[in-house]
Amino acid sequence: MNVEEIERNKDYIDYMTLNLTQRILGNNLKEMGRELFLGTYISNIGFYIKTWNSVNLRYLLALLEYLGPEFSYNGGINIGKMIVTDEQAFREIADGNHGLLERLERETPAAFRKYGMLIGARKF
C-alpha cells in the first residue's frame, strides 16, 4: 500500500470522535459480552447507518463483522481511502514511516481492511 492510498484529511477523519467511538464500543463490548454486543448493535444498525458519520460507521461495521463473521453489511457505503485509526500512527506514516504502514496493513484483520480501516493487531 502506498501513502497516497491513506486518507490524509484529518477534518474528515475527526480523530477525537473516532477515538471516543472506539472507547465506547470497546467498553460496551467488555460490559455486554460478545453475543449481547452483537445482538444490540446489529438490531439497531439502521439507526447507526442513518445517524453516524462515514468513518465511525465504517469502524462499527468492521467491528461487527470481525466479532461476528456471519454478519455482513450489503448496503452501499463509500469506503474511499484507507483510514489509519490511530492518530499517532497516522502522523508517523505521514512523516514517512512506510514500515509502520506495511505493518498495520499486514496486522489489520480482514474485516477492518474491507471497510477501509487500518488498526493493526489490536485485541478486542
Give a brief description:
With 124 residues, the protein is mainly alpha-helical. It is built from eight helices and two strands.
Written account of the structure:
The protein is mainly alpha-helical and 124 residues long. Helices cover 61% and strands 3% of the residues. It has a two-stranded parallel ribbon with strand order 1-2. Helix 2 (15-32) packs across helix 3 and helix 2 (15-32) packs parallel to helix 5.
What labels describe this entry?
globular, 8 helices, mainly alpha, 124 residues
If helices are DSSP runs of H or I spanning 4 or more residues, what is the number of helices? 8
% residues in beta strands: under 5%
Mean pLDDT: 92
Instruction: Tell me the Rg in angstroms.
Output: 14 Å
Work out the helicity level: 55-70%
Helix-strand string: HHHHHEHHHE
Distance N to C terminus = 25 Å
Based on secondary structure, the structural category is mainly alpha
Quick one: overall form?
Answer: globular
Describe the sheet with the most strands.
2 strands, parallel
Number of beta-strand segments = 2
Low-confidence spans: pLDDT under 50, at least 5 residues?
none
Looking across the biggest beta sheet, what order are the strands in?
Answer: 1-2
